Structures are given as C-alpha cells and as structure tokens.
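Assemble and predict.
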Amino acid sequence: MTAPENHPLLEKLTAVLMDEADAATVEEITQALASDSDLAAIATGLRATITLVQNELGVGATLPRGRVDDLLTSAHALSESRIPAALPDSGVGALMRAAAAVVILSGGVWGALQFAGQDQVLITDEAAQDERIASIARANLMGQLLYRQAHPRQASGQVDASVLGRYQDLAAQERYAIEQEGFLKGLGEVEEEELSESGGPVHVESLVRDRFTAGVPRGGVTVTGDAAGLSGKGWGNGKDEKYGGRGIASAPQTTTSTPVPGAPPGLAGEVFLGSVPAAKSPPVGGGGGGSYFGPSDGVPPSSKAGLLDSSRPSLGRLKKGQPSAPSPNQGPSTPAPVASGLQALGYSVGSTGGRNGVKLGIESKGAVAEKRSQKRQLSALKVVVDMPVDRRNEFGEFDDLLVGHTGSKEVLIDLEIFGDEAQPVRQPIHLPSYEETVNQRFQEARRRCLVNPQEPIENLYQHWWGDNSWELTLADSQATFGADVDTASYGAARNKLNRNQLPGRAGIRTEEFVNYFRPDLPAPTTDALGLSVEMAPSLSSDGNDRWLLRVGVRAKDIQAWERDPLALVLVVDVSGSMKHHDRMGIVKRAVARMLDNLDSRDTLAIVTFSKEATQVLPPTSVSAREVILAAAESFTPGGGTNAALGLQMGYELAAQGVAPGVISRVVLLSDGLANTGETDQAKILESVREHLNAGVHLNTLGVGIEGHNDTFLERLADGGDGLCDFVDDDRAIQRALGERFAGAFIPVADDVKIQVEFNGRQVVRWRQLGYENRAIADASFRDDAVDAGEVGAGHQVTALFEVELDRGLVYDGTPLGTVRVRWKEPKVGGQDNSLRTATERSLPIMAQDVLAHQGSTSAGYRRAAVTAQFAEFLRRSVHVRTDSVPSLLRAAEALLHDRELAQDEDTMELVGLIQKAVSLGLEDAQLSNAVQAATDDLREIEHVCRQLDSLPGHMNTGDRNRLGSARRQAQERLRLAIEEDERGARDAAGWSQSGILLVEGQEAVRRR
Amino acid sequence: MEARPTASLLERWHNGETDAFAVLIQRFEEPLLRHARTLLGPHGPIEDVVQETFLRLAQKPPALHPDAHFDSAAGHGALAAWLHRVTRNLCTDEMRSTNRRIHREQEVAPAEAVSGGQSQVDGADTREAVLRGMDQLAPDQREVLVLRLLEGLSYQEIAEITGRKKGTIGWLLSTGLVALSQVLAPMLGGSSSNQLTMGEI
C-alpha cells in the first residue's frame, strides 16, 4: 500500500472533498475510488478527520468581555473624532495605545491600495500593457508636475549669501572711498560747524601726510615725505630705529627705513594723520605748531587720509563715511599757531613677529592754561592707510584712548597686507543697474537648468542633487549593486551627535545607517545567503502614493566550532595622534575583546607603525593569550604615520600564514589616514588588492573620537574585501569585535551582487535609497569577473527602494519584480580563486505576499524605514524636501511602542539620536534660498520632461500644453525669486537699484 | 443583526452607529482568534493580536470595492480577507521575535511527547486531542486547515490571505489532512468501516 501522503491522487481527492475540483477531476476521482481501495481508505480517513475537526473545534473562543468593551470604547472615540481619544486605561491599554500610534502613522495611504481594483480587466497583450503603463507613468509625471506647480518648494526668505557678500564687499570699498573724501571735505567743514557750535574758530592742529611705498628693490619701506604744512617735533629721520620712519618735523626728504621682512613688494600708499584740538582748548602759540589750511590747500582730492582726532564731541559729526556737503565758505583756513593739543609725531610701517603694522607716535602738549594733571581723551582715533584697492585696509578706531597731558604715546596698529600686486584703481564703484543684473542672473540660472540631451538622465540627477534618481521602470527596470555591510557612517554620525554637533552631509551613507542594526531576518540554513522582501506604504509625504520595498539578504550563521582557523595580523597605528582620547586604551581593549573570540586553532601577529614599522609579535598561537596581551601593553604612541610601511610588514607576516583552509586577514587599526597623500593612497590600495588575490583580506577599524576620517579606511577595506568599522568606546568594541566578530572575520560569500528587477507592467517608477557608490552596471550582474562586496557570517544586508505602483494594479499573479542575489564562495588562501563558481538565487516580489499595511509590517522593516529617512534628512537629500522632521520624530518615537523594539538598545539609541539631531536643529530639508528653490523646481520640470521623452508612445496635446505652461510658470517664478533676491541683496548691502551706494538712506554723492 | 451586510456595517459604524462595530467584532472574532491560534499556538498572545486587528479596522478601515456595499457576500469576503491578512501579519510579526519562537517550541514539545497516549483519550478529551493533533502539524498546514475547514474560505481566498499560490494551498491542505488523520487515527477507528460502506463522496 502506498503511504497516504504519497498517493498521486491525494491532492485531487482533497480538492474533491473540499468542493474545489472541476467536473473532470470529480469524475476522475469517483472512478479511482471505485477501483483503488487505498485511495478509498484515505478518503474515509480524511472525511472522518474533517468531521472531527469541524465538530470539535467549530465552537470557538471569543474575546473576553473586557477586551471587547475596550475595543468598542476606542472605536467609539474614533468614530466620533477620527483621532484616537485617550484610550481606556485597562490592562491592555498600553498595548492598544501603541497600536493606535502605529496606525495613525500609516496615514491615509492604505486606502490608495485597492485589492479589488475597479478596472479589473486583465490585459494580456503586452504592447497594450506597456502603453497602459506608459500612460500611467505620463499621468504620474504630469501629476508630479502639477503637484509641484501647486506646491512650489518652500524656502526661507534669505537672500543669496554669495551675491550679498559680493555687494557688501564692494559697498565697503565704496564707503571707504567716500569716507576719505568726506574726511578731507569734512576737515574744512568742521571748522564751519565748530564755529557755529563753539563760537570760535577751530584749528586743525596737525596733519601728517606722507607718501610711502614699500617693496623697493632692497625690500625695505621707503617713505617719501612732503610733510606739507606740518611742523612739530621730529621723530628721528630714519636713524631712529624705534620708528624707522619719517620724521615729521623735517623738511621734505626721503628716508629709507630698515628692511621690512614681511612686507610684500609693491605696497604703496599714503598715510594721513590728522588731529583737531578740543573746541574749548584755545590754541596757544607754541613752538613747532603747524597749521593745516583746509582741503583746498593742496591736499589732493583723491587722496586718503586718516584722522587723529582729539576732540570729542566736537567732531562727532565726522563719522565714518558720512558725506558732507561742500562748505560754501571753503578756502584756506586761518593758519593759527598751535601749541597745545595733540600732534602726530611720526609713524613707521614695519613688521614684528609676523604682524605688519603701523606704529604711530603721538605727542600731547599741554596748553598753558591747562592743568598738568589733565588727561586728554583721544576719541574716535582713526587711522587709515590707503593702499591700492585690492589691499585696502582699515585700522581700528580707538575710543577713549587716554594720553597724558604732556608726553607721548605709541599706538601700534595691525596692518594686514595681502595681495601682491599694486593696482592703480581709484574708480568709483558702480553696480550694473538692477534690471540689467536681474536679467543676467535669470539667463544664467536658466542655463543651469538646461538639459544636455546627450547626458544620461541619472547623471543629470546626480549632478544636480547628488542623490539616486527616480527611474521610470519602462526606461530602466533594474537596480544592480554590490552588497555593503559597512556601518562606519552610522558610528561616526552617532559620535558627532553625542558631541552635540550635526554630522556633515557628506559622511552620511544611507545604506550604512540601515545596515547598522542587528539582523532581524531568519538565517538561511542551506544556502550561504537567503532573500526576503517586504513592502508597505512609504513614510514619504510627497504628493504621490509611494511604497517602500525592503530587500533583505541574510547570511547564514556560523557557529564558532564550525569555522575555519584564522591567521590574523594586526597592524596598529602608534603615531603621535593615537596618544589622545584614550585611543591606545581602546586599541588594547579591542585586542583583548578580539582574543575572546579566538581559540587555539588561530594565530595572531602584531605589527605597529609610526614613522617606522615594527614587528611586535610574530604569528603566535592564541593559546598564548598572556603573551599577546603583554605585546599589546607595550604599544607606545609617538611619531609620524607611515601606514604603507606598516601594511607592507603586516602583509609579509600574513603571507607566511596563508594555507588552504585558513582564513588569513590583516586588520588595520588607526585613527585615520586622511593625511596620507593621494599617490600613497593609490599605491597602498593597489598593494591591498594584490594581496587579496593571494588570499589575504584586509579589515580596517577606525579608532578614536575627533578627527576620525573614515573615507580612506573604508576604501582600503573595500579594496581588501573586508569590513570597515568604527570604535570609540567599549560598547562599540563589543559590537564590532564581539557581536559582529563572525561577520567581520568569517566570510560566507564573496562578490555578492544584488539585482532588483521591477516589472514595468506594475511598477511605474522606483528609486534606490543609498548604495550610490555601490552601483554596478546591470549587465555586469552575471559577469563573475566584476568584483563586489564580501558578506560575513550572520550579516544582513538591507536595501530599500521607494516605488510607485500602478494604481489600478491588477493582481494577476505576475510579480511586481524579482530580487536576485549572486555570489561566489569566499576566497581561500593558497588556492586558485579564479575557479570559484557563482551561485544565484532569486525571489519574486509577489504583491499579495509583500504589500502590507504600514502597521502590520515587521518591526525590523519599520526601523529600517525610519533609519533611512533619518539618513536622508542628514544628507539633506532632495527626496525628503517635502517631508517633515516632526513626522520623522513621531515615526521614530512610535518604534518604541513596539514591544520588541522597545527593549532593543539599538532602537532606543536610534530614537535618542534622532531626538538629539532635532534638538541640535535638524530641520526640514528645505532650501535656504528662494532662488535655489525656484531653480530646483525648474530643474524638476526639465527632468520630468526628459523622462516623458524616454517613454514609449506620445504625449497628448493637452499634456504638452500643460507642460509648456508649467515650464513657463516655473521660469516666471525663478525670475521673480531672482528679482526679490537681487532687491534684498542690494538693500542689505546699501545699494540703490540704479547701482549707487546708499549712505544712511540717501544716495551718496561722490566727487569724480 | 445577522441580516445586515458586513460592508454596510462598516459604513454604518462610520456614520456614527457604534453598535455596528460590536456586530463586526461578534462576526469576526471567532475566526480571527482561531486563525491566530493556528499560528501562535494555544498560549500565544492571540487575544492581543485579534484586539489589535480590530483596532486597526477602527483606525483605518480598508477601502472596499464599491460593489462590496451592494453584494453582501462579496463585501463579507473582502472584509474577512482583509481582517485575516492583518491578523496574519501581526502574528508573523509576533513570531519573528526569537524569544517568541523559542517559547513556542517549548509549548509544542510536550504535546508531541504525550501523543503516544492518545489512544486512551475518552470522549470528553476529544477536543483537547484534536487541538493537540493540530498543534503537531506544521504551522502553514495548520493555518490552511483552519481557514478551510473552520472558516469555510475557498482555496482562492486562502491564497490571497496567505500570499501563496492556489496550488500550494491544495497541497498544504491535503498533506495536512493526511497527517492529521494519521495522528487522530485511534479516534477515527470506529466510524471508518461504517463510512466506507456508505461509499459516498
């Protein structure tokens, strides 16, 4: 008798018993029962079983009354408000609240998926179906366009910083020029003003005017002087080393100072030092007092001057840059003997201790009438050295500088000299008119949105936004990429956040964030790798219905006793920087932790490097644990970082240990090799690849806190088919070398390539999150010569895709797509690795299998979705511009409502990091500038146009018109944004629309 | 009450008839509890799961095909399928937890250990014995058996709920039934010859 379960007709018999069979099957089974007694016996047994089950189990359980009441209360609250009111606080209240929170998150997306679509017409004609999808894609793209038209990207009203900066710069120069003119004019005017205020004449006590040039062939400062109208005490005549400059009292003469080491050649300019006595200090005749005869007394109008002003408040009106109308009464001011007041005695231009500067000597002379103890107040002292425009510099103003009643004082003023060529520029600055500039900026901005028809669409997207683009399935249905199990990006970002800084966008790799978490998928038991898929509505709140597909690749677990022996060589960085932040301590503890996972089968060798490489420990059996630990204790940091030497010695040691059946690995521990030169990097990488071919892998472990740069370490690990990890504390050590030990050191699959092929008949568009630098050409998936990542035991690789489905999706049993994974056996030392054959597995993405309500997805899925969005926010990805940080935060906090995740320390940490990032100012990824936002909108439209062009079939006239009008509108918005930005920038920098600098609300009048 | 079409209950509840939700619970709690039990075992958090399912129904009811509101059978079927799917997803979630899996394995183990003693069971223990027999099946077999034999769902409906092919459902059902009939053989003995003579299908 055949065993019942093996009877060939068993399934048909069951179908007949279950009333699921067609007429032919019923006929077949009826006949078979008559002739086949085995089958008849089986039929009897099955019928009896059915009856028994139905009789005994038919009366089922019900929910306990309390739970039903709870449910009804919640349902009532929901139907009242559609928002869950406070749920009843019963024994299950917490659970229900958690569930409610999860469901709220799923938002209104669920309704969009209709399991029983309205047009349930199965289209079997492929061409017709393609056309249908093309028209859906068109409709979706048009929808995207219309959505964007209705919701232009938002941006804060800040003006373009670079435009503003430029205008401010020019305004500063212009103000400076105006100010100098104003000063000279003002000196004349002051007399008038002071006259009216104080009732007496005001005398300019002294004005030093000197011309100097620097950079004469001898390299010194040459000061030529025609100390016009000045008299007073000299301060040496060039022999005085103290100032080394021009003696003021001297007659016009030329003095050469001592050489100025730091002064650049070609420096030339003028120094003016002016001093005006206090209004109420009547000038008293005295020796040496010079007079200044006002601006028309031969002071060239274009010259620049500095003011030494001793008379607060009488010169209060002579403020910086304030223009003065020419005095009607201008003419030679009354020369008056000056005996009291301040005098500029002399100056020198020089350089001490790397600082260039001007040294001024000031002498204060007491008037006869004044008390000797009286101090003069130097207010608003201002010194200006005029130099060619590109070197112009202004020196600080000194308020309340006290000088003794008599005596002298030195003031040292820093002078920053930059540029190295003098340019005779003295033209007043005029900005082009507002209209002209707007026009020019608009044309330029529009040019930046133009699409080169030769450029592939995805390049365009990368170029504009630096993210993976949305792909139309009809145009590109495959995503192919190498597996990546690195997590360093997450570790580095966490480290930054824990130090209260938002990580920079460049270091965020979405895939490394998602792959950080412990595997949640069941391990495969037969194959090295297993596949899984899961899909639910996306967290994205862009105007379209989006789904997030998770593709999981889980590596089999390998128990310690099953693994091959390991021959490890640690290459430890002991350069000077390792002294800091307990990095050496971290390394020592990491070695100890690593030993916990090793046993007598394994060997360990240690090489250290700073300027030189040193073999600290030859390959030693791990049974000699104490010897190894003692070697690690001997590490003493100091000196340079010569990683190349260290790795070379490490590889030499590893080469000795290469043997069949032994896993040979070099492990580099360093706080970053960022300062290694490009050429060196290339050489090191090359040698890493060579050794990999000989069967020696390379793992890298980033150690440390600040300044950790993992880019090169990551590239090294990639080159060596190993893992790059990051440790900064004991927990990270435990994770990297404890929990992830097998994954990091025991490979189960090599050259792991993953390909997701979407069904163009059901999936309209898709985009991949992360893996930007892991992409492999679609055609190379089955090309086993193409290298890809290695996956270690117990690892899980997660890839996420956002997809837009055909809304009228018909579940005709064809998959939404297919996931494939292809891999080779790990490389083994001492064998011909070129002969390894590849294994490929695939998994169809069946709609009914994977589509889930967001709340009914697995915990791991939900966490991956939140983690990916977090990473995209940190990346300031274009794809989250329409999403909001508060909703990310809510989604993250809702993870903790899950019973399983709430106890998972990594999830708690993730939520904490998101909260931290928000508290540190993580904002919606909106653009800071309206011009950028409008540019992006226009780019998006151009991108949509390019995508539309790539679709089969034709656009209808209505769509074409809409497209044209959308483009025109976007251009118009761009122009408006530029207009507003230009106005804002000009206003902020003080320029009028016609291009003239406004000074305190009025257009400055400049003398030409 | 029973006369009200299921889909209209949902609508009526939407429109403020809170009683309608109570009827929905009454109508579906039993099958859903049974379904959850097949997956989570007798000691699993089956009530939690079913309660959560209903809560989700209240929170975000499925969009039913417009016809569902007019054709009561179709409406019932569509809503039932949705509820079973959510229940199943929640159970899957539950089972994904390693702890839960271990817990569950420990629960099942003693049942197998005592299975040899089943010939001794008397009538009062029949229900227990059938339950234990069911527990010895693979979860996917058990699930399909319950959905077909107790909930009366068609192969097609089961396929939609579990995401398997229709053919797989037939296969799981037949192998599950055979396995169960073998486990329960001692209890079937008396009636078997009787039914054989009746010769009916």
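Residues 81-124, 183-344, 350-357, 364-426 of chain A have pLDDT under 50 and may be disordered.
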